[in-house]
Amino acid sequence: MKIMNLFSKILILLAVLLISANYTYAIDENLCDHTCPGSEWSTPIFEDVLYPGSSCTLRITYSWRWNECLGQCEFLIKEDEGIKLFPSTCSTTVNPKEVLEYAMEFITMRMFVYPSDPRCYPTEEHHQTYNYYLKGCYHWVGYLDPILGSYAKLEPCESVGCCIYIVVVGLDENENLILINMSSNVNSVCTDPDPGCFTICEEE
């Protein structure tokens, strides 16, 4: 009887742990993509730019949407293939967090091209706030492509977490876009990052 009771307790404990693990995973998966009915992400857009202070080419792939629930534009840098550096050796000389922040600034300053949606534009009287959804930590992975050549890309680590960057922009006296502020908000922490992983934003 004692053996049966012990066996039952073990089964119950395993069931609880399994349910908890699945629940935590579901929460983490959804934290960086707050859904809103009718707010679908656009078809991915990619753009190439010379990374400042280097001879490296940065390819950024991202999507945008107008979030009806929040009344603002949001951006999502593609998790896989979202950030690429050419050639791959560039990944040894740049900081992933700085690369991601530069990518967000670049995307924001392209506002009048993509998404080219007047609802996303700031005015002289009103600054615009944009959310960028990122994972909590990334690592560089190198590739060799017969057409593209060697490149490195940022991939989320297993202990991903969630990081939301808030970017505020306005217009100057010539109606050019200007960056007012960039800050981050941690929804879940990238705990115990794997070796080679870089934490993008941390709890203070």
Q: Could you characterize the architecture of this molecule?
A:
22% of the residues lie in helices and 37% in strands. The protein is α+β, with helices and mostly antiparallel strands and 204 residues long. Strands 1, 2, 3, 4, 5, 6, 7, 8, 9 and 10 form a 10-stranded mixed sheet that branches. A hairpin with a 6-residue loop joins strand 1 and strand 2 (57-67). It is globular, with a radius of gyration of 21 Å. It starts with a helix and ends in a 5-residue tail after the last strand.
Residue fraction in strands: 35-45%
Query: What is the residue-averaged pLDDT?
Result: 78
What is the N-to-C succession of helices and strands?
A: HEEEEHEEEEEE
What overall geometry do the principal axes of the alpha carbons give? globular
Count of discrete alpha- or pi-helical segments spanning 4 or more residues: 2
- What distance separates the N and C termini? 51 Å
Helix content: 10-25%
Total strand segments: 10
Report the biggest beta sheet as strand number plus sense, adding barrel if it closes: 10 strands, mixed
Protein structure class: alpha+beta
Low-confidence stretches: 1-31
